[in-house]
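Let us begin with a simple case.
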Amino acid sequence: MHLLKTLCEISAPAGNEAPLTEFLLRYINENQASWRVQPTVIQGEEWQDCILLVFGEPRTAVFAHLDSIGFTVRYGRQLVRIGGPHAETGYRLVGHDTQGDIACTLAVDDETGELSYEFTRDIDRGTELTFACDFRETVDTVQSCYLDNRLGVWNALRLAETLEHGILVFSCWEEHGGGSVAYLAKYIYEKYGVRQALISDITWVTEGVHAGQGVAISLRDSLIPRRSYVERIRRIAQAAGIPHQLEVEGSGGSDAKELQHSAQPWDWCFVGAPEDNVHSPDEIVDKRDIASMLALYQVLMQEL
């Protein structure tokens, strides 16, 4: 779990994914020689902070978003949410501005719900603040801020070790409305003819999706994927004997939103481990679900 811990410790809220992008590019450069297939790495200013790894003759693309939720400093010590972070008075926040490193405390007004910070000085307006990382590992679980979606990124990086054919897509802005998947999906479809997608992201523990019972295959959230594609994935998972569970939700979304709304005929399915304490400093995931997530992705990228 050392790689996952490192990923969780890197501050990269939506709109400022560059620190994580730079880490991934170094990681890919240092490790790809040991991978089964060395990918074509597509990145640069024309791709903003996104990265594409193209392996062999791809048929399917895996989308994993780099960004996290967080807060932006406004005026008079006010904070504005980035995405949908859970907020409680006393949460520890970290960041950096022109005056130096920041380690402050979140405050929530009991009456208005307005957010602010407590610190020894005023913080530069526009500064991003993220949860302070306290990575905890037991025999059975990992717990930390930003397992959503650093665990999805971890899954993609581990998948890269054995992947022969496919595209790994590291996208931006997912937690705050999206914006990058549209142009990435257009390029992938037009350049490689790929129109099958898996969403390597983290879902929720609910009354119907339980920790420790396997990776969740989502039949729907606020959007509905094409049933025939999802049924193919279900059959592959069943035939492989990989523990999994089915998710049905009426809200929520992922990078799939931009695929669903794109001008290209993309099929997609969200496949991810469930976590509890969503969007808080204490997100927790069962290691059995992490193992089944990676195992299912390895099989799906061979069979789809």
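The second case is a distinct protein. As before, the sequence precedes its structure tokens.
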Amino acid sequence: MKNSLKVHAALLVVALIYAANYSISKDVMPRYMGPFALVLLRVVGATVFFGVLSRLVAPHDRIQGRPDQLRAVACGVLGIGLNQLLFFSGLNLTSPINASLIQTIAPVVTVLASAVLLGEKLTLPRLLGIGLAASGAASIILSRGPVAAGGQDGLLGNVYILLNATAFGIYLVLVMPLMRKYHPFTVLARIFLVGAVLAVPAGWQQIQQPDYASFPASIWAAIAYMVICLTILAYLLNNWALKYASPSLLGAYIYLQPALAVLIAVALGKDALTWSKALQALLIFAGVFLVSRKPRQPAPAAVPLEPVQD
């Protein structure tokens, strides 16, 4: 019971961290700092943290063999480098609600990637779910509602978030074998290091542009939040919870994150919830629900049941 409460608490904290980020990031970008500069700070900070932590916790654990090395590079490129560069570029241009809803289709991409890469079967309900989620996401991407001021390209921002969700969905399929074979901190240290190879050159120019002396305390707090809470704490809690959480429980928190993001964005005046966005969210949620349901396995014939242990 205690462990179950801890899992719920960890997943709730992670959902709140990610949900709040959609609005907090908008305070920093683009007025004080560019999106690539934020990514540089996040990735370099996490690279140092997980590099040190992996040496302390699992000093003799190493990713070995050419296939695993290549897989780790792919995970670092997709799950860290491209994922974060695309996400912050997209969030810089689009609204918090649009970004949070579009990113929810990542589980749909994961199922499609599993079908292509692992040969998993696509059932009729899952195909229907993919269609529903895709129609909801396409409706958001193509909508031309008000976004951030300054003539920013909301359509381009929505496309960036879609590509971000796609990269992250494929990453989830690729990283699972590594997480099962090596210590999580060993994997995180390596993939963040690979991500830093992309993030540092991409953000080097933007990191030199801001007038840091003019930053108010609230902006420094927001940057610290994104580096410490969003990058390090969220990854730690998520990896711990994944050991104990069921797929259905993880699915429930997939829906909670955008709902919290909407509430936070509306409460802070960063965005407005309209009936069209509510309908788009309903399409995506229904699609993700159908996709996330595992196909029923045929019951084995003439196999005696064993007592279940609590």
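Residues 146-151, 299-310 have pLDDT under 50 and may be disordered. The radius of gyration is 20 Å.
Keep these points in mind for the review questions at the end of the chapter.
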